[in-house]
Specification:
Strand content: 35-45%
Distance between the termini: 32 Å
Helix content: 10-25%
Largest sheet: 13 strands, mixed
Radius of gyration: 19 Å
CATH class of the largest domain: Alpha Beta
CATH superfamily of the largest domain: Fumarylacetoacetase-like, C-terminal domain
CATH topology of the largest domain: Fumarylacetoacetate hydrolase, domain 2
Length: 283
């Protein structure tokens, strides 16, 4: 299942949705439609944001999955409730980062030879969603995978709710150590953990990656040779406390591309198999 946060513009409070047949289906409106059309009341208890859903993930995911299944055979085009559209084509919405307000962003290097023992905190205030513009000069893209953490508000055990594509924009002058992005792109959505399970390969993931500049492939890589898995990262992160919505970034199997190749008007697209393509325009 692909779950996302969206708005009609960047000033709007992000709304929870799922992606189905090229449409962004608003969870709250879909839940209201299920009540009015099908007499189903349970969906009205769904959270209105990704952060709240991750705080009660077991129940939230069950209901979200049932809601998605209910709409598999429903024609989405023109469907509305209380004169509000239930879904919109993906081209008509603004994508926020799947979790727009993570409590923390942690950068690991899962491709090092030494055992993972530490991480660096990133900046949660400089997140970009799919199709948003990068306005900071001198940064280079680096493709990674992120795990998004679920943990109920009663402080039960933390788990991985899902994964998403990461573009970790780092300073080109940065050398050595962990790649701490000055800006982090996440998206376009979170793919739930059950759908990524079949791609697990030892500690790695059998996911191919492409970095494209204006449609032309610049770099390719794979995540199958991760020397440390997300279970290791979650264990290390848990030693300093984790919350619902925390993001764990894997590090990259390839080196950052030089930012000097990019100019205003360029588009960088980072696509990971099964997780989707994250597009960033350069301003």
């Amino acid at each position: 299942m692909k779950i996302l946060s969206y708005g009609l513009d960047q000033r709007m409070e992000p709304r929870l949705a799922f992606f189905l047949r090229g449409h962004v289906v608003d969870v709250m409106r879909a839940s209201l439609w299920m009540k009015e059309d099908r007499g189903a009341q349970d969906f009205l208890n769904l959270a209105s944001s990704m952060r709240l859903a991750l705080e009660d993930w077991g129940r939230s995911y069950r209901l979200l999955k049932e809601l998605e299944e209910a709409f598999l055979s429903v024609e989405l085009e023109g469907l509305s409730v209380y004169k509000r559209p239930i879904s919109l084509p993906e081209t008509e919405v603004v994508f926020f980062a799947p979790i727009p307000d993570p409590p923390s962003l942690r950068h690991f290097n899962a491709f090092g030879e030494n055992p993972i023992s530490h991480f660096a905190f990133g900046n949660t205030q400089t997140l970009l969603g799919h199709r948003q513009a990068l306005t900071v000069n001198g940064l280079a893209p680096q493709g990674e995978v992120a795990a998004i953490i679920a943990r109920d508000k009663q402080n039960g055990p933390a788990s991985i709710a899902g994964y998403c594509t990461v573009n970790n924009w780092q300073d080109v002058s940065q050398t050595g150590g962990l790649a701490i992005g000055k800006v982090t792109g996440l998206g376009p959505w979170m793919v739930t953990a059950d759908e990524v399970e079949s791609h697990k390969l030892g500690t790695g993931l059998s996911l191919d990656m492409q970095l494209r500049l204006n449609g032309q492939v610049q770099q390719e890589g794979r995540f199958n040779k991760m020397s440390h898995g997300f279970a290791d990262m979650l264990q290390i992160a848990s030693e300093t406390g984790v919350q619902a919505g925390d993001v764990l970034c894997s590090g990259s199997p390839i080196n950052a591309e030089k930012a000097s190749a990019y100019k205003s008007g360029d588009t960088i697209e980072l696509e990971l198999q099964a997780l989707g393509a994250l597009s960033t325009s350069i301003n």
